[in-house]
Q: What sequence folds into this?
């Protein structure tokens, strides 16, 4: 093998070997608090307390910008057993992603502005909210603001709850007024992290293949 080719292979091994631990770190490390932060939500009846069956299903993407102090939601759902009567985010759980408990409503009641509810409720919909200003009292349930001791405290508690997995999104219906489908907010990696993760996994696969070939 020529010296040039050995140098190329050595360089490739070094780069790929460096990417592998980075990919592992991305898999095991918590999401960084870059802004804006995107949260994926899977809405199902099994997440309700008590669980609901039959129930519709849904997905949501929630975008929080702690620097700009804003929140925006995109929610899509279908197959609900009856028309919607409410939709909001509940806060704050005692522990991250805590199951088996219900907590109070933090955002506007009975629903996010523009979300269809009775008498114009629906069983399926694709909702895209405006950008909510978290510094404004109109973005919250008044009872949540009172419970937290004021607007600034309510904002701080809500943002902290979102960032630490202590909130959940809930869609309520006529048949299930306590909630038909709900889900936790899980932070999603930013695009650059996804690219790095992909490269790292590719490098890991290449290294495994090289080891297998060397054994033959």
A:
């Amino acid at each position: 093998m020529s010296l040039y080719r050995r140098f190329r292979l050595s360089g490739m091994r070094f780069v790929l070997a460096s990417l592998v631990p980075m990919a592992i770190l991305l898999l095991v490390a918590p999401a960084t608090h870059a802004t804006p932060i995107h949260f994926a939500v899977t809405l199902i009846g099994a997440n309700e307390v008590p669980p609901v069956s039959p129930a519709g299903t849904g997905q949501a993407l929630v975008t929080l910008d702690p620097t700009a102090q804003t929140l925006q939601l995109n929610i899509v759902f279908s197959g609900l057993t009856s028309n919607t009567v409410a939709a909001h985010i509940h806060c704050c759980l005692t522990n991250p992603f805590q199951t088996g408990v219900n907590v109070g409503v933090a955002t506007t009641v009975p629903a996010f502005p523009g979300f269809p509810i009775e008498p114009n409720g629906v069983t399926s919909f694709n909702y895209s909210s405006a950008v909510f200003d978290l510094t404004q009292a109109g973005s919250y349930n008044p009872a949540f603001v009172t419970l937290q001791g004021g607007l600034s405290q309510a904002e701080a508690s809500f943002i902290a709850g979102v960032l630490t997995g202590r909130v959940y999104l809930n869609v309520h219906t006529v048949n299930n007024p306590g909630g038909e489908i709900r889900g936790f907010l899980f932070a999603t990696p930013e695009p650059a992290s996804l690219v790095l993760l992909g490269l790292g996994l590719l490098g890991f696969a290449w290294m495994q293949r090289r080891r297998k070939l060397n054994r033959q």
